[in-house]
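Sharing a chain and its predicted structure for anyone who wants a worked example. Both blocks are below, sequence first, tokens second.
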Amino acid sequence: MVKPLAYGFVILSVLAGCSDSNEHAAGAGGSAAGHDGGQSGAGGQHDASTETLSCSERESIASNAVVDALDGAELGCSTAADCEEISIDTECHAACGAVVATQHKAEVEAAIAAQDATTCADYHSDGCMLVIPPCEPPLGFNCVAGRCTEGTGEPACTDHTIRWGEDGGLVASRVVFTLEPCARFRAFTMSGDQPASMVCDGPVPSDTIDALNALIASADVQGALEDAPVIFGNDTRPVDGTVTRIDIDGAIIDVGQQCTGGAGCIDIPAGVTDLTELLQNVVGQQHNISDCFNTT
């Protein structure tokens, strides 16, 4: 059985990492795939475009073509009924399946058929070996924020729209992070008067959303929201420092450095500190599950 894509951008990056060696991943949960058991040209009739390619080169070309076809193919759902799990194997590359929006299924299958008819046409007759990766059982799928994703049950949701990032400092550009209702994380680069550029887009684990909802409901954060706009801690922006700005549904909480006894400095409530750390951890999670952006 095949395992559907847990997060489209994670698996696409794995597939795209295929190289001309024998050591590259094969889709979700894939193992080393590809084998130069023979060279194209070892016998039989050949397509002129592939007769000089090795087995692993043809595998890489085919897998990259599927990656291109899958780009955005999980978009376009309203309910889980708009999604389905499909095989993304070609004759010269095996993977562990994908979850796509049904409206894009034909496009992906057409790309696979095209590779089977060209790049992979003589793969087996040339002595190349197709390695089947071990795949975990499928976990079902759902539609979350318009995107088909792995897993069943209700999507993790927050009713809030949250924006956060560093505010202040003499910088040419900055990164702003957002969490939208039903756990959609996005990151944008902001530079002067230029339009914001989205550099990351992905779902957030349900346990993180549960912790976030609990913190927002806590007395410390609710009190801060009632007092918003509010500044906690030492505000170093007047001397080119920064604070962490958290915007929850339009209510702004600025969090600076811990107070050191200066007049007018408001100690940071424990719940606000926990919220700040959790949001920072959300960014770290996205680094760990995706290479779609780098803010360091």
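Comments welcome. The longest strand covers residues 162-168.
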